[in-house]
From TrEMBL:
Cross-referenced PANTHER family: FERREDOXIN (PTHR42859:SF2), OXIDOREDUCTASE (PTHR42859)
Keywords: 4Fe-4S, Electron transport, Iron, Iron-sulfur, Metal-binding, Transport
SUPFAM superfamilies registered for this protein in UniProt: 4Fe-4S ferredoxins (SSF54862)
Cofactors required: [4Fe-4S] cluster; [3Fe-4S] cluster
Domain 4Fe-4S ferredoxin-type positions: 31-60
Protein name per Swiss-Prot or TrEMBL: Ferredoxin
Function recorded in the entry: Ferredoxins are iron-sulfur proteins that transfer electrons in a wide variety of metabolic reactions.
Transcription is among the record's keywords: no
InterPro entries assigned to the protein according to its UniProt record, in alphabetical order: 4Fe4S_Fe-S-bd, 4Fe4S_Fe_S_CS, 7Fe_ferredoxin, RnfB_subfamily
Lineage: Bacteria, Bacillati, Bacillota, Bacilli, Bacillales
Length: 79
């Protein structure tokens, strides 16, 4: 289980979430930050820190943002 960073992060990259994460699982990509789903402990700390409300619990990701779940998986697969 994991949290997911969605479209509001793209080209925003405020990065407040990175410092909030207790397990350092938020990594910088070219256009957005990504949460490593294998490491995230679903504590929710990042969600409250995000100034653009880009972060959702995986089960709460809006339909139009669901592509970002797979985008994160691909980012870590290609690392
Ligand atoms: Fe890190 Fe917690 Fe956010 Fe997961 S939910 S990315 S562990 S701050």
């Amino acid at each position: 289980m994991s949290y997911v960073i969605t479209s509001a992060c793209v080209d925003e990259k405020a990065a407040d979430c990175v410092d909030a994460c207790p397990v350092d699982c938020i990594h910088e990509g070219e256009d957005q930050y990504y949460i490593d789903p294998d490491v995230c402990i679903a504590c929710g700390a990042c969600e409250t820190m995000c100034p653009v409300a880009a972060i959702y619990y995986i089960d709460d990701v809006p339909k139009e943002e669901e592509a970002y779940i797979e985008k994160a998986v691909q980012f870590f697969n290609n690392k």
